[in-house]
């Protein structure tokens, strides 16, 4: 295993021809000394002995403080850095309480529930818990309870396990609806651990907030009032976010007392190629190809690495390219690189996790399925293929390396995209800002309504539940009664239908059952894809990658949710294209911006996938376009939009010939920049621009949440509009291209083929619009932002290029 200094590893990566010029900035986060404390005297000595046997003589100060709060009955959030020992901070008080409960006569004793956002993290934590509790005999009985748990084991978990590890999905669909079978567990529930709590944001976070309120309601029914222990390595205002998530007051422990090794963080921009894109725009080498090269080089050096990729297809492609290049050097090395992503079968995931733990694998190309908390100590480097959407995710992924306290290397490889290009030339936007505030809205009626139905099915709803579920509850119940989902009898609302109320909603916001991917010749199930992404990823003719093998989709059955594929070896990848229209339903807020207006409200979006492009592998060259016949989908959501008047167009020298292109370019770039101001991924949002919109009767640009009922992102955009649109203008203006490129205003998924676009017109239009932005109103709120740093900076080449387009997500 390599233990080279991170600066040495980076130097070797940059030593090839033209490589050094690709590093635009290097950030050095120096090592930090740790501060010890002592465990609270109420912790059982057997637990302290078990921790010491694991090699931990004394806790860090934040661990001891968190344990003290937990024992006092205070819900607490531990918001300290990656690998700072957050797990131990909650495990020690939990173990001590379970040990106390094991001695209770005639009873099951105390229980605890652990929630992780992914199955992989829950399985990993279960391994750690078992190792730590071995010396405690039968006092701690951990067990995973999720969709992969065999049915013959589930009854044992319900009856005997006292530390149950699961995920919010299983809590929502499996545990809460069956609460009578879990009554003894819930009656004794002392602690609820919520790991990686910063991931519960947007629509998913809003759903989880309501699932936790349902859990609290059932616990109260059985006489329990559990303490909530939350953990996150990357959270802004952690106590505020934790309170919004749980509905309870939460104490914050954020002073990280753990030691940290040196982190060298490089920003890497792939070079321009000789290729020309749409409208003759310059094209950079893809982040996928560049990341595959880096993963190959790191593997050759013996550097244990993970490359994080945004898409499942990207993870597969990077592993295939790296394997092919390694095989040319040493065939044995090719077997030490693999892909890891969601959609794999359970046994495939477990085998990969074990190979990574053991060191059998040197390199892994992974989606965010591996981002969260899994203990892969021993990693030396992380390569991030494209900005992951938020600073919180960026630091989470970078923190996967160096987990044993040694130095680590992190590299962010920019995609040919506005936001990525902006960031690698504006490192202060990454390193001088705190992480984003968590955005979630539990009162979203699209979220709250199905959970009220689920709660009524668990126990009839009464007026006393209004305080728990929020003020919107009282108005929604009569609507649910009118829709014949609930029925009021005396003083309570009851679920009266035969189907399960918990099946009314998918808490991941994925909208419908997953599409099964089946090999046509054998009938073998290869995996699944989320319903919301199916139109763009498994349409007829799509290229699908699985475990390093390439398949072509031969048919896509919408009714049965099945895509039939057969193995193939095409020389191209596929990218779907769609069209979007938008209707204003209601304007909630409207603010004058000079003669123009900034608005926020409800809209209906109609989206249809109409074709797909075939792009040459590595270069991204477009080989052709094929039409598709898929049905349109509608989405009612929330949006921010701005309008301009004829006078403003005259002032900006925008004539009718370039108006559409100027609006379109501003829309693309503003979507690309919004993730700097809201806790969103750019795929969570979409946009539409219209020279004359029928509802506003003015030139209008819309940016909307890509989830039913909204997710809080458009609202955040409204409140940060001045800073957001100022950054958008700066990003377009600073790009060195002549007429627009993927680094500023072009979008690879634009339904109109990036036509029309007018770069200079967009800059002039945004300049005039911002001139009218009011002081101290919407748009004045500063950007939220990353961890404080003490760093030596090494500026890279100047010449920032700008933020880029982003096509609306398929609703």
TrEMBL record:
**Does this entry carry the keyword Glycoprotein?**
no
- Compositional bias (Pro residues) spans? 797-811
Q: Which UniProt keywords are listed?
A: ATP-binding, Helicase, Hydrolase, Nucleotide-binding
* Residue span, Helicase ATP-binding domain: 67-253
Report if keyword Nucleotide-binding is assigned: yes
Region Disordered, residue ranges: 773-811
Could you tell me which residue ranges the Helicase C-terminal domain spans?
A: 294-446
**CDD domains per record:** DEXHc_Hrq1-like, SF2_C_Hrq
- Which GO molecular function annotations are given, in alphabetical order? helicase activity
Matching InterPro entries: DEAD/DEAH_box_helicase_dom (IPR011545), Helicase_ATP-bd (IPR014001), Helicase_C-like (IPR001650), Helicase_put_actinobac (IPR022307), HRQ1_WHD (IPR055227), MZB (IPR018973), P-loop_NTPase (IPR027417)
> What is the protein's given name?
DEAD/DEAH box helicase
């Amino acid at each position: 295993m390599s233990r080279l200094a991170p600066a040495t590893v980076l130097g070797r990566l940059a030593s090839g021809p033209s490589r050094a010029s690709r590093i635009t900035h290097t950030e050095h986060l120096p090592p930090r000394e740790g501060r010890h404390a002592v465990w609270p005297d109420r912790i059982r000595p057997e637990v302290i002995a078990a921790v010491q046997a694991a090699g931990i003589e004394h806790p860090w100060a934040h661990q001891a403080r968190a344990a003290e709060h937990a024992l006092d009955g205070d819900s607490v959030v531990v918001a300290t850095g990656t690998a700072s020992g957050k797990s131990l901070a909650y495990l020690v008080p939990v173990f001590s309480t379970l040990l106390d409960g094991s001695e209770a006569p005639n009873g099951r004793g105390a229980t605890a529930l652990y929630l992780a956002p992914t199955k992989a993290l829950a399985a990993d934590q279960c391994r750690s818990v078992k190792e730590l509790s071995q010396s405690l005999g039968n006092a701690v009985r951990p067990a995973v309870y999720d969709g992969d748990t065999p049915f013959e084991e589930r009854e044992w978990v319900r009856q005997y396990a006292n530390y149950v590890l699961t995920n919010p999905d299983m809590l929502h669909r499996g545990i809460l609806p069956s609460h009578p079978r879990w009554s003894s567990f819930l009656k004794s529930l002392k602690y609820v651990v919520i790991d990686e709590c910063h991931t519960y944001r947007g629509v998913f976070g809003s759903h989880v907030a309501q699932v936790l309120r349902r859990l609290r309601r059932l616990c109260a029914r059985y006489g329990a009032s559990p303490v909530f222990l939350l953990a996150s390595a990357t959270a802004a205002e952690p106590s505020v976010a934790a309170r919004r998530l749980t509905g309870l007051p939460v104490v914050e422990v954020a002073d990280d007392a753990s030691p940290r090794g040196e982190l060298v963080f490089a920003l890497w921009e792939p070079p321009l190629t000789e290729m020309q894109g749409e409208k003759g725009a310059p094209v950079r080498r893809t982040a996928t190809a560049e990341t595959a090269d880096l993963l190959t080089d790191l593997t050759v050096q013996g550097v244990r690495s993970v490359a994080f990729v945004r898409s499942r297809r990207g993870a597969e492609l990077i592993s295939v390219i790296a394997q092919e290049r390694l095989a040319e050097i040493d065939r044995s090395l090719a077997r030490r690189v693999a892909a890891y992503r969601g959609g794999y079968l359970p046994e495939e995931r477990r085998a990969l996790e074990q190979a990574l733990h053991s060191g059998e694998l040197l390199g892994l190309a992974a989606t965010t399925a591996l981002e969260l908390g899994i203990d892969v100590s021993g990693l030396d480097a992380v390569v991030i293929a494209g900005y992951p959407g938020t600073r919180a995710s960026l630091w989470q992924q970078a923190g996967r390396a160096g987990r044993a306290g040694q130095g680590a290397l992190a590299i962010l490889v920019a995609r040919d995209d506005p936001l990525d290009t902006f960031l690698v030339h504006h490192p202060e936007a990454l390193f001088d800002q705190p992480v984003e505030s968590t955005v979630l809205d539990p009162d979203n009626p699209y979220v709250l309504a199905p959970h009220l139905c689920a709660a009524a099915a668990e126990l009839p709803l009464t007026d006393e539940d209004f305080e728990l579920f929020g003020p919107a509850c009282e108005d929604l119940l009569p609507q649910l009664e009118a829709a014949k989902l609930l029925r009021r009898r005396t003083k309570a609302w009851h679920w009266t239908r035969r189907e399960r109320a918990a099946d009314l909603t998918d808490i991941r916001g994925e909208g419908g059952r997953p599409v099964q991917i089946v090999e046509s010749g054998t009938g073998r199930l290869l995996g699944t894809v989320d319903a919301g992404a199916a139109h763009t990823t498994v349409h007829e003719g799509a290229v699908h990658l699985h475990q390093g093998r390439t398949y072509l989709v031969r048919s896509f059955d919408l009714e049965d949710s099945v895509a039939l594929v057969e193995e193939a070896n095409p020389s191209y990848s596929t990218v779907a294209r769609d069209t979007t229209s938008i209707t204003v339903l209601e304007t909630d807020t409207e603010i004058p911006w000079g003669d123009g207006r900034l608005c926020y409200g409800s809209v209906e979006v109609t989206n249809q996938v109409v074709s797909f492009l075939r792009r040459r592998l590595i270069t991204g060259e477009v080989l052709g376009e094929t039409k598709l016949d898929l049905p349109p989908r509608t989405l009612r959501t929330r949006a921010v939009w701005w309008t301009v008047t004829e006078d403003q167009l005259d002032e900006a020298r925008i004539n009718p010939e370039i108006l559409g292109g100027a609006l379109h370019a501003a829309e693309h770039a503003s979507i690309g920049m919004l993730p700097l101001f809201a806790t969103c991924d750019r795929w969570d949002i979409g946009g539409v621009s219209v020279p004359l919109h029928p509802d506003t009767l003015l030139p209008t640009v819309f940016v909307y949440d890509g989830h039913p009922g909204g997710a809080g992102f458009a609202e955040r955009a409204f409140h940060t509009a001045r800073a957001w649109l100022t950054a958008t203008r700066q990003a377009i203006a600073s790009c060195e291209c002549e007429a627009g490129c993927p680094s500023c205003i072009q979008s690879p998924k634009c339904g109109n083929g990036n036509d029309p676009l007018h770069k200079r017109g967009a800059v002039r239009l945004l300049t005039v619009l911002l001139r009218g932005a009011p002081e101290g109103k919407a748009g004045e709120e500063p950007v939220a932002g990353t961890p404080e740093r003490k760093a030596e900076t090494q500026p890279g080449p100047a010449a920032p290029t700008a933020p880029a387009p982003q096509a609306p997500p398929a609703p």
